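<goal> How does this chain fold?
<body> The protein record starts here
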Amino acid sequence: MALSNQNDIEVIMVGGTLFKQSMVNLGLDTFEALNSMRADLYIMGVYNFDLEIGISILRSSEALIKRKMASISTEVLSMVTKINWTRFLITLSVL
């Protein structure tokens, strides 16, 4: 939502239900709307990541939309929070 204050960035909202915890739209309406879109850059938030498994998303409905967004985007950038980075470092030290 903070991006809406930037003059040089266009924010496009798709249909569906807003999942407030992650601030993403979910549902069939969202998935269908993405069929007619292309994105230059998708900034994807993740809950956790693992070197062998990959990224983790808690809800399958959210994972479906994130997978779709990644497939229609030229580039995907994933963000890591300090908590997730700490989990990653702890995992590495255990391995």
Q: What stands out?
A: The longest helix spans residues 82-94.
